[in-house]
Specification:
The protein is of the alpha+beta class and about 400 residues long. It has 2 domains: about 1-5 and about 55-275, Thrombin, subunit H (Beta Barrel), CATH 2.40.10.120; about 280-390, Pdz3 Domain, CATH 2.30.42. The chain has 7 helices and 26 strands. The chain has helices spanning about 1-20, 25-30, 60-65, 260-275, 290-295, 315-320, 355-360; strands spanning about 45, 70-75, 90-100, 105, 115, 120, 125-130, 135-145, 150-155, 160, 175-180, 190-205, 210-215, 230, 235-245, 255-260, 280, 285, 305-310, 325-330, 335, 340-345, 350, 370-375, 380-385, 385-390. The longest helix is centred in the first third of the chain and has 19 residues, at about 1-20. The model is unreliable at about 1-35 and about 80-90 (pLDDT under 50).
């Protein structure tokens, strides 16, 4: 890529030199003349609304409508985030999709990032390639490593853009058909279809925190699909394809997508600030199940049992209790008895760890929220002032 760009620049300088040798008078006039700016290039934006509710799943129609809005994202990783590329620099290829007619593109953060956590390094150059072979430079507006979301921006002048409509991942049900479009192994505009295999999964992010509410699908997701859209029967994006779990590393495993409801929150903050802040409660919990409830005599059958509270965190400051220091082994796991059981946070019931994580992420740092819990057999409501999630925190909401 670098030699080709260099050759074009050299060709430009050669042409300029030839023009200046035609004669002193002409060269003088050219130097003093006011250059005429090129006419502005129009951006063609094709808005394709989602089909009607209850529309029969038609993979061909979905592909025809949505594929023009799916892009290939090419990332180059040099020695410095903003440094020049040297020969042999690593290149990453993923997918993305057009979000708006102004040139916004969404992809996974890991597509434009090398490493994770505190060692995560942003790509030094990013390019977006469209279905019509247009290839343009992109600016990374911001990355949300906790949700594995990145917002890119391109100059839309002269391009034909087809923004994809966003749906609601919370409305998806197991068994509903879905389609994944992307660039597996660099083969752009590839379609695979399947169903929602499960919902409310937890998947890895680029930090110590898991991404809650993820969508599991049997639609083939391979390397290069990362960042591409997972769409429903109406052609709405309900997730960003993020990873595959496979015994062999191939596409025969199960795929996972970051839920679009989580992505929307990331996009809003990335647009405004270029970064995303998450609220933090500071508890480590386990989910309840009938045998566990019976063994430890817990007062409710659904909720999360607090095992530990982060020292100095919001939960600790509000007086929430973790288990005592004594560990009791049960069914192959160790538990600490005596901790609170959380059953609601704000207006959201908490039935499992994902519910708690999703409930906390709905709030901004600094928000005060009521936490319903059970302690010593009695229901209590405790007000907690949530704080900003610390970068080095353990994997707790």
């Amino acid at each position: 890529m670098a030699p080709r760009v260099l050759a074009l620049l050299l060709a430009g300088f050669a042409l300029a030199g030839c023009g200046g040798d035609d004669g002193a008078g002409e060269g003088f006039l050219e130097a003093r003349a006011t250059p005429t700016p090129p006419p502005p290039q129009a951006t063609r934006v094709e808005v394709v609304p989602p089909t009607s509710p209850g529309t029969e799943f038609d993979p061909h129609l979905i592909y025809e409508r949505e594929a023009p809005g799916v892009v290939t994202v090419i990332s180059l990783f040099g020695g410095e985030e903003d440094g020049a590329q040297a020969a042999g620099d690593d290149e990453g290829v993923g997918s993305g999709f057009v979000l708006s007619g102004s040139g916004e593109v969404v992809t996974n953060a890991h597509v434009v990032t090398a490493g994770e956590g505190s060692s995560a390094r942003r790509a030094s150059e990013v390019f977006v390639e469209f279905a019509d072979s247009n290839k343009v430079a992109a600016r990374v507006v911001g990355r949300d490593l906790d949700a594995d979301v990145a917002l890119l921006e391109i100059d839309p002048a002269g391009l034909s853009l087809r923004p994809l409509p966003l749906g609601r991942s919370s409305a998806m049900r197991v068994g509903e058909p879905v389609a994944a479009i992307g660039s597996p192994f660099g083969e752009r505009q590839s379609l695979s279809v399947g169903v929602v295999s499960a919902i409310d999964r937890s998947i890895r992010s680029l930090t110590a925190f898991d991404i809650p509410g993820a969508i599991q699908t049997d639609a083939a997701v391979n390397p290069g699909n990362s960042g591409g859209p997972l769409v429903n029967a109406r052609g709405q994006v309900i997730g960003i394809n993020q990873q595959i779990r496979s015994s062999s590393g191939g596409g025969e495993g199960v795929g996972f997508a970051v839920p679009i409801d989580v992505v929307k929150r990331s996009i809003r903050q990335l647009r405004e600030d270029g970064t995303v802040d998450y609220a933090y409660l500071g508890v480590a919990t386990v989910e309840l199940y009938p045998q566990l409830v019976e063994r430890f005599g817990l007062p409710v059958s659904r909720g999360v049992w607090v095992q530990s509270v982060s020292a100095g965190g919001p939960a600790a400051s509000a007086g929430l209790r973790g288990g005592d220091g004594k560990r009791t082994s049960f069914q192959g796991e160790d538990y600490r008895d005596g901790g609170d059981v959380i059953t609601r946070l704000g207006d959201r019931p908490v039935r499992d760890a994902d519910d708690l994580a999703l409930a906390v992420t709905r709030y901004d740092p600094g928000a005060r929220v009521d936490v319903e819990l059970w302690r010593d057999g009695r229901r209590q409501v405790v007000a907690v002032a949530l704080e900003r999630r610390p970068s080095g925190a353990d994997e707790t909401p």
